[in-house]
Structure formats: C-alpha cells, structure tokens
Amino acid sequence: MEGKSYCPYCRLELSGDRHLSDIAAWDRYNCEYRVSNSDKPPIPELEINNRKLKHLTTQKNAINKRIRQLKSRNLELANWRKENPL
After folding, report:
1. What pTM did the predictor assign?
2. Burial annotation 40-51 (CB, 10 A radius, 16+ → b, else e)
3. What are phi and psi of 6, to 5 degrees?
C-alpha cells in the first residue's frame, strides 16, 4: 500500500506531480508547486501523520492535566463545603 504525498509548502495532498486540487492550492495559498520543478521533495503521508500525532498527543496531555487539576479543585471545594455548611 503506497501512502499519499503532500506539498512541502502548503501541505495539501498531491496527485502525481501536481496538487490534487490545483484550484484549492492556488486559491488558499497561491501555491504552484510541481514535483518536477522543485528542489524540495514531497512530504510522505507517514511524516504528516507523525507530526499530527505529536501535536494531538501534546494536546491530549494538556487536556488530561487540566482535567486532573479540575477534579482536584472540585474535591477541595466539596471538602470545604462539608466543613463549612451554609
């Protein structure tokens, strides 16, 4: 199974030597990348996926940390409320 490849400038998917959608590449990024006319090689799908995984893992860790902080704070508040009824 061969993976996809992506433009090294705009990160849009390539189809052969060109963008999968030349119109989207131009409209969004003014990108005219062609594999045959560039010194930069396309980015393989595996590399793109690894970058995304790293980013998502970082986000997940930050979210989990915040969840632990909120649970701890809620526990503190619940204990304070038990000790100081209205």
Report:
1. 0.73
2. eebbeeeebeee
3. -130, 155
